[in-house]
Structures are given as structure tokens and as C-alpha cells.
Amino acid sequence: MKKIVRFILAAALLTAAAGQTVRAEDAYVPPHEHDFALVSHTDYTCTEDGYDTYVCRTCGEEERRVTDEASHRNELVSGAAADCEHEGNEVFVCSVCGEETVITEPALGHEWKDNGVVKEPTLFTDGSREFVCKRDPTHVRYESIPSEISSDSSVAIPLILIASAIVLALLAATAKILVDKRREKKGKEETEEKEDTEE
Ligand SMILES: [Zn+2]
Ligand SMILES: [Zn+2]
Ligand SMILES: [Zn+2]
Fold first, then answer.
1. Distance 51 CA to ligand 3 centre (A)
2. How many domains does the chain have?
3. Ligand nearest to the Cα of 111, by number
4. Ligand nearest to the CA of 73
5. Which domain range does residue 139 map to?
């Protein structure tokens, strides 16, 4: 009988001991400040952050500390620089997953430098001012400078009056010449007629 009791007791103790080993996490640990030790590093991937894993030497608690953000391993495969009129771009391909990323840069636009007047305006003809692009000297544009007559009415009005007067004078002169010629012709004809009748 004693033997049986002893056996049961032994079995119970064993079970308790086994239970304790299996459920080590529940073991009582006195309050403490964790004493973390770095145990491993997990590299970042295209979609997941990289991290270091620490484990407490006292209680075994695990802690992850992010070291790198998730990111593609991008390699530049082609590119074109932006210029005055065209946008630039850089094409990257991830060496791990092959995903393509295109980064565009807007066109820069011209940067005009005023080269000054290249053709002076006259009274009647427009002049021009030249602008050359600082980024590319083959980019040239011209701005028209209006003629004096179109830009200044104080010049224009008297000029128009003078021009009109000249035109009128010319017309009058032409008309007078025509009249004189006709008269002269008529006079000649009359003389000829007279001569004819006399004969
Ligand atoms: Zn701990
Ligand atoms: Zn990737
Ligand atoms: Zn330009």
C-alpha cells in the first residue's frame, strides 16, 4: 500500500515538473529591466522593412528594431536629361523583383538673354530685338519693335497730313498737265484744220 502511495506521489511530482518545463513562459520572473542582446538581423526586402532581433537575457522576451525601410534595389537602366523643351527621365529596374520605376523631370524652359536691338525701327518699318537662350544658343527668338509711325501718334498725324498734302499736290499737278496737253492737242488740230481749208 505504501508503495502505491509513493508511486502516485512520484507520478504527480513528475507531471508537475513536466508541466513546468513545457510552460516555461509562464514561469515567474521577478520585475526587471530587460537586458537585450542582439541575436539576429533580417535584411529588408522590396516590401518589408529590415530589422534587428534582440532577446532579453533574463526573461527571453523578443524585440524587433527596424533598421531599414522596405525598398527596391533599383538600378538605373536608362535616362535622358531634361532640356528647354523636353522633359527628362530616369528608368530604374529593381534587381530583385524587376519592378520598373520611372522618374520624370519637367522641361526646364528657355532662359532668354536679351541681346539687344538687331534692327532699328525706322519711321515706316518695324525693327527687332534678339533674344538668345542661355542653355542653348541655337534657341533664338525675335521681338518686333514697332515703327515710329505706328508707335507715336504725335509723329503719325502730321506725317499723314503732309503725305496727304503731297498726294493732293501731285494729283493737282497731274490733272493740270493733262488739261494742258489736251488744250495743246486741240489747238494743234484746229490749226491743222485751218490749214486744210485754206488749201
Ligand atoms: Zn527581460
Ligand atoms: Zn523589388
Ligand atoms: Zn532654350
1. 49
2. 3
3. 3
4. 2
5. 112-151
